[in-house]
Amino acid sequence: MSNLTINADRLIRRIEELGSLGRDAQGRLVRVAASDMDRLGRDRLVSWLKEAGLEVAVDRIGNIFGIWRDNANTDLAPVMLGSHIDTVIDAGIYDGCYGVLAGLEAIESLKEAGFAPARPLVVAAFTNEEGVRYSPDMMGSLVYAGGVGIEDALAAVGTDGTVLGKELERIGYAGQHQPGFLKPHVYVELHVEQGPVLEREGIAIGAVENLQGISWQRITIDGEANHAGTTPMAMRRDAGVAAARVISFIADRASASRARTVATVGTIAFEPNAINVIPARAIFTIDLRDPNEASLKAEEAALAAFLDELAASAGVTVQAESLARFEPVTFDARVVALIEAGAKAAGLSCRRMTSGAGHDAQMIARIAPSAMIFVPSRGGISHNPAEFTAAGELIAGANILLGVTAGLAVD
Ligand code: GLV
Ligand code: MN
Ligand code: MN
């Protein structure tokens, strides 16, 4: 079985086809979680799972599973592969989708080759990994791992005022299974790197050994609306200027930091949002990340102190609300070593690395030994339609996944 390979054409065709589904009138890929666009992707995935002869199961948070039991001992915990197929707004076609479709491809290829696994193989597509519409991100895998209760997650209110549970029902993906119903023996997630390291170093495979901590907050600053022409600068309580100061503070601090902190304000809204009115209110989000928990805590504390000072100096009130907080995660050393060994056996260059992005693997790591495989991202670009990984690199990564899966499934 050592010379088994995936069906490369089928994998690339499916990645491209899934990438064509869920586009808006401007052609942007917008399969945000539990939307009608997400349903299009889900329906296609389910049809491919069925075509591959897998049993399809959906749990209460809408996670989709393709299960191959074959003649395996069904008392044994399954090897689980997976990722997500929800996207950000104006996404690329690889983020998440690659891991799900390569997981399906690995299982389908093993099945077609007459491989006899000792334990079941499962591919999972977790709900709302991106967290664009509903917080927190990695929600489906977090619920699956027992990190948040199902009722709380289903009650999550989206940026558009919708309720996740109702939306899952509406699109037909409020399943019956209890999250966590299959406890994995091991979980392996293949993903595009979404950063510049592998390409810069000319390395084919990343064996991901850890993943940085993530802190998401929503900040609301209240000042006072007033006339843009008549109000002297010294008399203003300008929520917009206060928000700008926060943005500069976190960006300057992260840039100057000796730690590996990154800081982003990805959304902002002013009220009343009119050209000649001083903003009465600014609402924006902050995404802070660092691989070191102590550094991340120090950044959060510095931000909190700055917000207090700002409230006093700018005559505004400031509220900070946590939307997501995940500590850095260390993946399973044995699984990381298997990935490295797989790359070596295939004659591919490989390095250990840290994931800058959040992934479902960080949640499943709470309940099963887990690790990730990365392949290069051109220009390190992701969360952008220009996201790109060459077919040869995608195929190489999927073949490593296949080999690791076969190795893990034999005992
Ligand atoms: C998920 O894509 C994240 O890292 O924000
Ligand atoms: Mn992803
Ligand atoms: Mn993403």
- Assembly level: single chain
What does the average pLDDT come to?
Answer: 97
- Gap from first CA to last CA: 15 Å
CATH architecture of the largest domain, by name, is: 3-Layer(aba) Sandwich
CATH homologous superfamily descriptor of the largest domain:
Zn peptidases
Count of helix runs: 12
CATH class of the largest domain: Alpha Beta
The name CATH uses for the topology of the largest domain is: Aminopeptidase
Order of helices and strands: HHEEEHEHHHEHEEHEEEHEEHEHEH
- Fraction in helix: 25-40%
**Count of β-strands:** 14
Tell me the fraction of residues in β-strands, as a range: 15-25%
Shape: globular
The domain count comes to: 2
Helix/strand structural class: alpha/beta
Roughly how many Å is the radius of gyration?
Answer: 22 Å
Q: Give the biggest beta sheet.
A: 9 strands, mixed
Ligand species: glyoxylic acid, manganese (II) ion
Low-confidence stretches: none
